[in-house]
Automatic annotation (TrEMBL):
Designated name of the protein: L-ascorbate metabolism protein UlaG, beta-lactamase superfamily
GO molecular function annotations of the record: N-acylphosphatidylethanolamine-specific phospholipase D activity; zinc ion binding
GO cellular component terms given for this protein: cytoplasm
Organism listed in the record: Thermoflavimicrobium dichotomicum
Family matches, as Pfam families: Lactamase_B_2
Keywords linked to the UniProt accession: Membrane, Transmembrane, Transmembrane helix
Highest taxon, organism lineage: Bacteria
Transmembrane segments: 6-28
Keyword Cell membrane: no
Domain Metallo-beta-lactamase, first and last residues per copy: 58-268
Amino acid sequence: MHTAVTITLIVLLILLLLSLAYYLFWIIKKPSPPFKEPETRLSPKEWRDDEVTIGWVGHSTVLINLYGYIILTDPVFGKRVGIRLGRGERWILGTKRHTAPAISIEEIGKVDLILLSHAHMDHFDIPTLRKLARPETKVITPKGTARLLRKMPYGQVMEMADEESMEVDHQVKIKGVPVRHWGNRYPWNVKYGYTGYLIERNGVRIFFPGDTAYTPRFRKLKEEGEIDIAIMPIGAYTPDSFQWAHCTPEQAWKMFQEMEAKWFIPIHWDTFVLSYEPVHEPLERLYKAAGDQADRIALTRHGQAFVYQKQEKKQPIYT
């Protein structure tokens, strides 16, 4: 009996040491960029409600004014994301933000709809979602994840699965789009879904996949109508093993071309260090992949806002 207990303790100790060694290896190898404020800040109060304006807050958080209807994707405004061990951000075990949000929650004002792509902590930030909770705000979230918001005073929380569609407030059409990723917040959350979203109003269609690896599924989107803007992730692809769930910049551009979208907005880079590639590499590789079509890349810095005018060939970028 004592021998079995001793062997068990030794195995546990070995596993602990291996885990510690792996953690230290990760800490040493990953980039450590200095903290910075965005060069520009978003000013949504100056945006017009008869246009489509999209601003990059940081990571996968994008603020959209879709003809006066305000949408916020995967909102994360905290200084750190990860496992919460106690109250306050200093008790979060996880990665630290190195680029501040390009706007505060208070500066955003009213939000009509929040879109959540999956429950990973860098996309589904509970402290941020608590601060955003208002009776006038609705939330669409993947299957199985509404329970994470059950104590928050949102006007309505709706779950959506792939290929499902709904019209929100009789104004905006939302459709769930299959992506190649995974949804577990913790290992045991096997029933948490994950999905991308096709957003449509007044004939303008915007695609937001959240996180995704390369998938040929997006080719089908063009069959349902023209995609005006694709908001695509371009970071967290190194080491290569990460690419089963995260696309490279080249793969993101390939999917963009396959869906025949007009404009590319890159996200999921230069905000949190989640992988080994240098923080500026994703954008550099994206530009190289785009080649002579690089002028179709709409936003390249935190705090930039892009005004899309469907009938005009040349689109202005406001910073």
